[in-house]
Design a protein that fits this description.
The protein contains ten helices and twelve strands. The protein is an alpha/beta fold.
């Protein structure tokens, strides 16, 4: 009699433990520090993501911690999603204790634009695990939602892979229904090699996706890598607008002479156009000497080549002999003589040639020697600077 009473007590205790296991509440309160997936660095590579949580009885057998860890895994995933990434999401679960739901699968949140706070509330609402493991039912429900949304999708399933033999076939049906535009990822939270193998078959139904162990996602780095694999791609780096730092009209990537002074004319390489030609004259003369023909040929070729330059300065000068008024007129006559020669012999537009006389005010050599005075009796053909006032 005594043995019978003891046996009954053991039976009651065992049933009580089983009932408690079937109602494991699955806390998501453990601390987790998400990886730093910088805001502005990533964008969603999918339009939609459906997350499916196994809330069946097998998740609360043995220690009863698989359901709790599965919820924690999804909570950590949610925390790791960058705040500025936009996609549509939904959270589904299947199985359930009778106190949670009598439905084979339910949608705890969504489909809706992804909202981390709303996702967390939906996850927290899945409190009691129990019942069978109808993953196929949840997959079909997710497929209907994703089909209606359109675009590229991802499905993330967190499960132990137990007692769901029809799940691989259901996954293949989902992929077909979505025209192959879906990646299925399975996260194994369990102890059974057979369960992991089944989840691999589910993931293999899609041409992308894969299976990972939940234990590998407990670190910030592991979870961050998984979030990137499922959801993210790097934002394309905005191509910087072409720069012309020195404002010379030649972009920096082609400019062989950066920092050209403002206002200077440049060639196709961004280098300053330069032409400084000295033509010397005999004393008290404005006649062009034959020996300077080659120099004038070179000046004319330059002027004609660079038609974008609106003016060329033709500057006349004298030595110091004679009074200022006479030398001023003589310097202007010399400048006009060169201008007229360029117009007459090379067809250059005279409006581009700015004639300016400086008299004896700008010597380039000493006036104390014959050679110095000869150097000062000159016309300079100058490009490409702003004309003097």
């Amino acid at each position: 009699m005594k043995k019978m009473v003891l046996g009954l007590l053991w039976l009651v205790a065992a049933l009580s433990l089983s009932a408690c296991a079937g109602m494991n509440m699955g806390s998501t309160g453990s601390a987790f520090t998400p990886a730093n997936l910088s805001t502005g660095t990533y964008q969603a590579k999918v339009d939609n993501a459906a997350f499916i949580l196994d809330a069946s009885a097998t998740m609360v057998l043995e220690s009863g911690e698989h359901f709790t860890r599965a919820k924690q895994m999804l909570a950590s995933f949610n925390q790791s999603v960058p705040a500025d990434v936009r996609f549509n999401g939904a959270l589904l679960s299947f199985g359930h204790h009778a106190s949670q739901s009598s439905a084979a699968s339910t949608t705890a949140w969504g489909p809706a634009p992804y909202d981390k706070a709303a996702f967390a509330r939906g996850l927290d609402g899945i409190k009691a695990a129990g019942g069978n493991s109808p993953l196929a039912h949840a997959l079909f429900a997710a497929a209907d939602q994703l089909k209606a949304a359109g675009g590229k999708s991802a499905i993330v399933i967190v499960s132990d892979g137990m007692q769901m033999a029809n799940a691989p076939a259901a996954a293949r049906h989902v992929v077909e229904k979505l025209n192959g535009n879906v990646c299925i990822y399975t996260v194994f939270e369990g102890n059974s090699a057979a369960g992991r193998s089944l989840l691999e078959q589910v993931a293999d139904a899609s041409s992308c996706g894969g299976t990972v162990d939940a234990a590998s996602l407990q670190s910030s780095a592991g979870m961050g890598a998984f979030v990137k694999q499922v959801l993210l791609t790097e934002r394309p780096v905005a191509k910087a607008a072409p720069q012309d730092s020195d404002g010379d009209g030649v972009l920096d990537d082609r400019d062989k002479c950066p920092d050209t002074p403002r206002g200077e004319f440049v060639d196709e390489d961004g280098c300053s156009l330069k032409l400084t030609l000295h033509i010397n004259f005999d004393f008290d003369k404005a006649d062009i000497k034959p020996e300077f023909k080659d120099d004038l040929d070179r000046a004319a070729a330059f002027i004609k080549k660079h038609s974008q330059v609106p003016y060329i300065l033709i500057a006349g000068h004298t030595d110091h002999t004679g009074d200022a008024a006479y030398n001023q007129k003589l310097s202007e006559d010399r400048a006009r003589a060169v201008r007229d020669y360029l117009v007459a012999n090379y067809g250059i537009d005279g409006k581009r040639l700015l004639v300016k006389g400086y008299g004896k005010s700008r010597p380039v050599a000493t006036n104390k020697t014959k050679e110095g005075r000869y150097q000062n009796r000159r016309v300079e053909v100058v490009c490409c600077i702003l004309p003097p006032e």
